[in-house]
Every structure is written in structure tokens, then in C-alpha cells.
Amino acid sequence: MLDTRFHVVLDGAVAFRARGEGREPDPVTVATLAELAGADGVSLRLRSDLRGVQERDVRLLRETLRTRLDLALAPAADLVSTAFDTRPHRVTLVPEARDAPDAGGLDVRLLKDALRAHVDHLHDADIEVAGRIEPDLEQVKALHRVNVDVAVLYAGHFARAVTRKERRLELARLGDAVTTAARLNLKVAVGGGLDLAACEELARLPHVEEFHVGHACLARAVLLGIERSVRDFLAAIARGRQRGS
User: Fold this and answer.
1) What is the domain extent for residue 79?
2) What are the φ and ψ backbone dihedral angles of 111, each rounded to 5 degrees?
3) Which runs of consecutive H residues, i.e. helices, occur in 20-151?
4) pLDDT in tens, 92-118
5) CB neighbours (10 Å) of residue 141?
6) Between β-strands 41-45 and 5-9, what pairing exists: parallel, antiparallel or unpaired?
């Protein structure tokens, strides 16, 4: 059975802290508890308008975590340089939120030259590089051509699908993209609005190695605690794996 990893996305904790005068909850504490509960990594979005606050978070996370730190950022020279300085285990290149708030993934075909330069720069620092894209076959192939290591497939359309037909169509899109990425020797992750049910269903797909969950995990943690929430998601993924095998 394929070894799977679960990453907790900390962006919701950062946003919640900002609403409470910038003190609590501390994303570093959330990450530590998630790690103790079995999470394999944490992800944090670094935004240009919150650099001062988030660089402190990144530094402390890098110093304290025993699991993997994944830093998500837009492919801009100053942010990539920050990643070069802090040396996370992985950098995931994502769209700039203020320019495309509803964008699920990068347009790799359009940005290929700039992305290739950023990827090469990060590889020189021995940092693994991922790219978040829509589950589109041409985008998967373009991601492979710029030498990234991990394809993070945006599953938000699947997670938000209302009808069975929409859900089947989005699941088929994701399945085709997963298969293509695996054939190109890319590691495969899924993320974007995933809840327990979506994780369990997507865990049936072969070749999906990682599940990135933010809001749903943290929302469940408000009621049950972060440790219980992480364990519930790990159990859902395990159930899906068993049913898909």
C-alpha cells in the first residue's frame, strides 16, 4: 500500500490570530500539537503583506518542528529569496492571492520561463519544490518540464461539487491528472477545501501521496482539539486507502 502523508495547512490559524490582536492561537503551537498527533508536515503561506509576522513563524517552525515544513509562496523574486534564507524542507509555488483570489493553481504554461528560474534557484539550495496546479493534463506536463518535484493538485472544485454528476466529473479529472503526474515521476499531493469525506474518497486514488488540509482540520479542532482532528483525518485517509486497494 502506498505510504501517505498528511499535512496541516496553518493559514487559518494565522488568520484567526490576526483577528485577535495578533497573539493567539500561535501557529507554532498548533503545528507542534498536530505533529504530536501524527501529522507528517505543516504548510504555511508566506504573503508579501505579512512578511514581518510570518517570517517569525517560519523561523520558529523551522527550528522546532521534527516533521516537514512546506512554505507556500507566489513565484516572486523577493519571496523566493526569503525561502532561500529560511531553508524550509519544501517550497510550493502558488498563485498570488491578491491578483487571482479565486485561482486554484498556477498557469505553468504561461509562466514557464520564470518558474524554471525559481525552481533551479531553490534546487541549488537543496529545497524540494512543488507547484499547485489545476487538475489539467497540460498543466501537469508543463509542471514536469520546469523540473518541479511535486504536483499539488487543486481539489477545490471536487470538494465544492454539489451534484453527483459534478462530483464524478471532478473526481475523473483528478484521477487523470494523478495518473499523468505519476507516469512523469512526479510526487502527487491533493489539497484545496478538503474535508473528511473528500479525503476518504480521494484516498482511493492510486499514486496520491499527500493530503493537504487546512480549514476543515482547524475547524474540527475548535470543537475536538487539534490532536483529535488530525487523528480523525488520518483515519479517514486510511479507510479510503483500504477501500481503494
Assistant:
1) 5-244
2) -100, 15
3) 27-37, 51-64, 77-86, 108-124, 137-145
4) 999 986 544 455 899 999 999 999 999
5) 14
6) parallel
pTM to 2 decimal places: 0.92
Q: Coil, strand, or helix at residue 155?
A: coil
pLDDT cut 70: percent of the chain above it? 93
Return all residues near 56 (Cβ < 8 A) that are at least 6 apart.
none
Residue closest to 231 by CA, chosen among 29, 1, 16, 8: 8
Residue 74: CATH number of its domain:
3.20.20.70
How many domains in the chain? 1
* Residue pair 103/91 in contact by the 8 Å Cβ criterion: no
Measured between alpha carbons, how far is 141 from 19 in angstroms, rounded to an integer? 40
Which helix (H) or strand (E) segment holds residue 171: the answer is: helix 164-183
